[in-house]
Amino acid sequence: MKSKSIFIVVMLIFGSIGLFVKNIDLSSSEIALFRGAIGSLFLIGASFLVKQKISFKTSKWNLVLLLLSGGALGFNWIFLFESYRYTTIANATLSYYFAPVFVMILAPILLKEKWTWMKGLGIALAFLGFLLVVNPGGEAAVGAYNHPVGIMYGLLAAAFYTSVILMNKFIKDLSDFETTIMQLLTASIVLFPYVLTTQNLNYSGLDLQSAILLLIVGIIHTGFAYLLYFSVLKKLKGQTIAVLSYIDPISAVIMAAIILNESMGFVQIMGGVLILGSTLISEVNWKKVRNAS
Question: Is the pLDDT score of 114 beyond 60?
Answer without folding.
Answer: yes
